[in-house]
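In line with agreed milestones, the collection of sequences with tokenised folds has grown. One record among many is set out beneath this paragraph:
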Amino acid sequence: MKDRILSHKKAIIAVCIFAVLVMSLIIIIQRKNSEDRKAANELIPVNYSQEIVVWGEVLYSRIESINIDFPATVTDVQVKEGERVTLGQPLVTIDLSEYNGNMEKLKQQLFANQSALDSAAQDISALQADISQLQNEIVRKDDEYISSTNADLKLLQNSLSLALKELEDSKNDFQDYQHLYDEGVISEMTFNQYVNMLDQRQKAVDDVEANIQKTKTALKDELNLLNVSLKSKQVQLSQLKESNKTNVAMQQSGVSAAQVDLDIMIGKIEREYIIDSCIVSNIENGIVKNITVNSGSNIGSQGMPTEVIQIIDADSITISAEVYEEFIESVKVGDTVRIVPTSSPDTSLEGTVTHIPDLAMEKDGRRVIRVIVKPVDTNNILKPGFTADVYFPK
């Protein structure tokens, strides 16, 4: 009986040991299968007979940041991050009433400055006419003085000619009557009459000559006064012109400054991504990346630019394919490759190698070269940040 019990115990122990061995074997097999599956899932380049397959990341080379540098208020955000947008599609609605009001005030200021510009210069036409008249009068009187063509001088010259003729006649008469007196033909009283007549004629000539000299002196003095007046008016004209030049320059400066400010303000709302009161996409095929505002946000305060939204240019999407250095000699710029998106493994796209950098990076203890591939993706399957397998021809 005792031997039977002992034999039964040994059998039970043997069964337990066998069960433990079986379970250990199962665990080892499962662990190995798990490691095999994990290794299979890692994107290690596979060198098949015709292709080299590598892991790639979808990137982009162009992103447009839309900034607003004038005061406005966001009234509505019409897109979400990651959304596809097309050229001219409304993205964000903004209230421009304050900005438009400031522009209207500036336009009124510019109009006022332009109106003031017309009256900034004093009228100098009357003064110029006076100067011209004085110059003509001086030329005329100077000619009269030099050539003695003045009316008073001409009259005096005529009087002088007559007086000289009468003086000459009196001298002849005096000489004739001097002989008669010496011969006793006429009396002394009669002779004295001719002497007195000669003296009167000489005095008349002297008086006329004195008047001629006085008239010339008066004419010269008048010319001097006219020249003084001319110089005074010319100085006045020069000062007025300089004053007008300064006033016009100052007023023109104000007009120019206002015009520049207005042009800048108008230019800020005439950008390609602003239509009326909407910020729109300025990219034909875009993807919204970052939206930094929401409804009610105040943007562009004090002229400081506010980034409103970023749009990725989907047409600039490329794939950075990580090729291990031992395979890089097989890759050439211009090669056509196959692209299989991880998100759509049943899809195969074509691409072209556009750049092979002369630089390797370390990854997981190995050296990789990030080759740039430009895909042909008319259906927009590839998206930034996604991954794909890239098959290079061997």
User: Anything to note?
Assistant: The chain has five helices and 17 strands. The mean pLDDT is 87. The CA atoms of residues 67 and 307 lie 4 Å apart. The helical segments are 2-41, 97-118, 125-147, 151-182, 188-269.
